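RETRY 2/3 - previous attempt timed out on the joint model. Re-submitting the same 592-residue input unchanged.
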Amino acid sequence: MTTTSAPPAATREALGRTLVKLRNDGLDIVVVDADLGNSTTARKFRDEFPDRFFTVGIAEQNMIGVAAGLAAAGKIAFCSTFSVFMPGRCFDQIRVGVAQPQLNVKMVASHAGISVGEDGISAQAIEDLALMCSLPGVNVIGPADVVEAEQAIEVAARTPGPFYIRTGRSKLPQIYDESYRFELGKAHVLRPGGDATIIANGLLVHAAVEAADTLSQDGIDCRVLNMATLRPLDEGAIVAAARETGCIVTAEEHLIGTGLSAMVSQVVTANAPVPMNAVGLTGYAESGKSNELLEKYGLTASDIVREVKAVIERKGQS
Amino acid sequence: MVATETTEELAAKARRIRRHIITMVTEAQSGHPGGSLSSVEILTALFFRVMQHDPSNAADPDRDRFVLSKGHCTPVYYGALTEAGYFPVEEIVTFRQLNSRLQGHSKVGTVPGVEMSAGSLGQGLSYSIGQALAARLDGRDYRTFCLLGDGECQEGSNWEAFMSAGFYELDNLCAIIDRNGVQNDWFVDETMPLGALDAKLEAFGWHAVTVDGHDIDALLAAFDEAQRTKGCPTVIIARTVKGKGVSFMENDPAWHGKGPSPEQAEQALAEIGE
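RETRY 2/3 succeeded.
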């Protein structure tokens, strides 16, 4: 599958309009907001259903608690803020108030990663997936484009239990068209291939596809998996990739060793040990334009190409 | 509905709940007797007079909600629940033991009647606001009661919640603050004083009532006033004594979170009476 002809869109744009659609479909959705509804696009829901939209002001901990109470009373409770705040400021509320009782709270967190850009490191969530994946029973999804984000939000709304969905600020080309069907807990094979596997999520799926195209010109046949769901993790796809391609590179807009790379490594070492390299962040970044930051901090297609070539060199070595 | 008619019968319920508290923390040799004993009359009034609830239909969507925000005070909670008939009284000796339904801090999905998973302070009021907003949205007339500790009010998240409950004018919500004046380490006033809670909460849009939290008639009057107060939530500031009813536990921070020896338990039960 290649990039569609649809105009570029940010994954965050999926939220408000999808919630409106789902409410129009009859789902018992309510939204709790903490003064970032314009940015996360949740505020679109308020325009249509003001009696179902509750703002708590700049008070994220209260947002989670109110959403938990609404969920316990039978509602499908969505809440949204930036991904730095969702687990960062509310971790205890999410842990005790949502994850432990397995409440129907859907946390959609936008402006993830360094691609948020100029605000700098306080606004750049590079730890959120690690925090959310540390909570048993929370479904965690990092969609690659706006189509996948819309479908992930719909799946979250229709599936009981807690969800964390990570969206971004930057406009991206669309990978998927309307024929795509997101499946919770299933990796999506974007490129077949037998020489190596790139496992990516979110923004880095785009770079992974570009890297695979570049590598094919060098005669390297690279499998690309979009691992949009981190919890529950598609262990079968990971084990198959290890066995069938013999090496893996993970690519994520997140700290290495705590998110996708760590989770894939655990599955690989337990089931089918093969060489692995990781593309991702090793520390905090800085202010700058999105593309400048991705370049400086090593989150581009050429970084993936380099790591794939390096990991292939290690195949068969013990 | 569980309704106990006379003040004398309510006082007898309160004594039984106090005995259950002592039994639980003695068997477990852990748990929180101080803040449980201070809130006995509050739960007695709620579970046996004020709240509309049916232990045989604990998931009734129209039930009144009791949310224990000070989630470590499970002894008084389980004491009230078993007295109301939510689970057999024989089970209280399993409190905090392996494989027990009576978890140390309250957890939903264990015994019926436990409304919220708690134990980390400063979360119950937000949860209660969600319940109250859902009632309003669905046109249900259930009420939500949330019990907080006074030490707990040092948690900043409560003030986010106080602010929003006032803004949303949630007159189907009633918070009760167990103003026993003692927290984990020491006295509240010497740790981080809360000052004029009534004035603070009135400034946040609440109707505030201060009562003697061990006077059941006064509590019933306050709950009645809360029910009649429209256009804003009500907070009942219940002046209580931590460890109330057991002389050596009263107002002693050491009895925040530990179980008594068998001899001390015997004395405690004797003081409480049948």
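The longest helix of chain A spans residues 86-99. Closing ticket.
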